[in-house]
Every structure is written in structure tokens, then in C-alpha cells.
């Protein structure tokens, strides 16, 4: 099973949607909440090169955010990444 990390904030609708997509795929993930933790958010920003949430990694490959995840799913690439 794929190793998935997702940086989130509690009330972000894009974070909720990204987790729904992953849940529907039946895959587990490590959620890393960055609300109220500026140091952790700064680490995420440095790692991703972006400051918005969610930021998603699958098997150490940066996927991007929710829209990117949805695009991968629509193109049939997400299932391949999750199977790797």
C-alpha cells in the first residue's frame, strides 16, 4: 500500500475533499494538521514550495493539493500511484 502524507487544516474544504477521495479509495494516510503550528506550516511550505493546504505526498512524490489529486484521479493516474 502507498505511503501517503497529507498536510491539512481543520476547516479547509479542500482538505476535507482530498481526504474523502483517499477514503473512497480505501487507502490509509498520515494526516499532519498544521493549524496553530506556524513552525510545522513553515516546514510544509519549505518542503512543498507552496503555503496552501492540503499538500499531499504519495510515496515521497509531491502530488500538490486537492485539485491536483482530483486531476490525477480523473486521468486514471491516482489508482496507479496508490498501487505502487
TrEMBL record:
Q: Which GO terms describe its cellular component?
A: cytoplasm
One Pfam family per UniProt? Glutaredoxin
| Domain of life from the UniProt record | Bacteria
Question: Can the keyword Electron transport be found in this entry's annotation?
Answer: yes
Naturally occurring in which organism (per UniProt): BD1-7 clade bacterium
**Location of the Glutaredoxin domain:** 4-63
Query: SUPFAM superfamilies, per this entry?
Result: Thioredoxin-like
Quick one: a GO biological-process term for this protein?
cell redox homeostasis
Supply the PROSITE patterns for this chain: GLUTAREDOXIN_1 (PS00195), GLUTAREDOXIN_2 (PS51354)
Query: GO molecular function terms here?
Result: glutathione disulfide oxidoreductase activity
Protein name listed in UniProt: Glutaredoxin
UniProtKB keywords: Cytoplasm, Disulfide bond, Electron transport, Redox-active center, Transport
Give the family per the record: Belongs to the glutaredoxin family.
